[in-house]
Fold this protein.
Amino acid sequence: MTSLERLYRWKAAGALSDTQFDSIAAVVRKDRFSVFFELNALLYLGVVSLVGGVGWVIQAYVSTLGDGAIVFGLTSILLGSWYYCFSRTLPFSTAQVESPSFAFDYVLYLGCLTLAVELGYIEFRFHIMQTEWDYYLLASAVVFFLLAYRFDNRFVLSLALSTLAAWFGLRISRFGFYTGETLRRSGVAYGALVIVAALMLYRRGIKKHFTDTYVDIGAFVLFTSMLTGVLQDESLVYLAGTIGLAAVAIAGGIRFNRFLFVVYGIVFSYIAISYQFLHGIPWDSSGPLLYLVLSGSLVIVLTIGLARRLGRAQ
């Protein structure tokens, strides 16, 4: 009796479900399987490694190559990448658009990273903007946003949001001393701005599938900013803000089947409440350890239960 025949017998006897049978049988029959995600990960790492290697070459051989050769080389990569993308792109649409080729997204990402390296090098060597150098970040963010929407690329959208966050924090710090409170306020303002922008764009029907990227980044920045207020300043205002934001994230995650937001709400609120509860209690007693074991187990059970509920809903 062959292995496949045994699988059929186990399936008929109820020992294997249809899903389990299909998965195991595909391996036994040596069917073809998709390596799409693995190839995407390798391409992404390849692009990042390539740009990192270019940066290392520039740093190591700047005196040998000269400014002209370096700027020319970076500009060639940049223009070549963008020519490839603009010459092969599909017409713009506010709805989701498939990439015209497998390597398209990564060539575009290569061009964006090259732009960042070239702008950084130009400012480092020639100090054109001097104290206002952070406007390079703003200009880069604007370009990345335009490219992300033109080519429907979430990689570039994430790059645009992170670049905008860097500029936002630097500009806020110009209004006063760059303290932890200043950084927290800029984080809260940035996170709220990103989420509001995502909801507005969603209501207008502009790239609705980008909403998750906006809200993921905005929510993470909001939670992180709130939590630092709890951990560093022991502020009850930030504690209440963290718990309130967690309640909204959990309710929204359950309603819209977004488990990541449920995890955000549970983890960040648990850390904030636990810190406030355990603060000042000596750790040489068994109380803190017992609390962490019991509360941690409860949080894990709650998270698994919610994950199963969302899985059934989907």
Q: What stands out?
A: The chain has two domains: 34-174, 176-314. Residues 176-314 form one domain. The chain has a mean pLDDT of 83.
